[in-house]
Structure prediction request, 254 residues.
Amino acid sequence: MNKQLRKAVIAGNWKMNKTPAEATALINEIKPLVKDATCEVVVCVPFVDLHAALEATAGTNIKVGAENCHWAENGAFTGEISAQMLKAIGVPYVIIGHSERRQYFGETDVTVRDRVRAALNAGLTVILCVGELLSEREQNITMEVIGKQVKIALAGVSAEELKRIIIAYEPVWAIGTGLTATAEQAEDVNGAIRALIASLYTKEDADGVTIQYGGSMNAKNAGELLSKPNVDGGLIGGASLKAPDFATIVMAAN
Ligand code: PGA
Prediction:
């Protein structure tokens, strides 16, 4: 029942895939398949594809997101893109703290917090990724790890700003591996994240937060995962690059 208090959001995370021309083609394929979606549909694309994606989605129910942004408004940060720049070209969403950023690019809980701050200041909606390593799950410290990630990322985020935060629970061992968390595992962690948010804010605030699951979500397993009361959507990698699969997941969230 609480599910009705928040919007289901299905977001594709294209990672480092697709040229601008390929992005336009994929979006044109997705468009008719998801036009009747009642959930929010987002495609998060590489920076160089943003213009093409914004153009291809204009006037549709598909929103566009970036896959990262810097914590500063501008400055000497060669190779980086600021949240203000994303805002300026009309991008509404940004993924922050993806495990691949944490794993390969030195992202820490503190830089994630700073990037979240920059994105909120620029008026963007954040898809904040959190998740445990396999070794952490095996040591039974999943919630300690995720609790720390969530608490640090939300430090200084007001209840009003929390409305522009979506949390994506992505167990690192499930990303791109074909190993999906069971619906029960996803529900357990998402429920615990919601309880933690209720303790940091209020229960009402926590009930309003969309908490996605991500990690090998696909056309086959999406229905079961999304049927859980605390799984409010998905962040989809591999399956978001195939229009029919992505559309099936979107329709499963309806
Ligand atoms: P995957 O990626 O669906 O390919 O596992 C999910 C993600 O990294 O967001």
About this structure: The pocket of 2-phosphoglycolic acid is lined by residues 13, 170, 175-176, 214-217, 235-239 (CB under 6 Å).
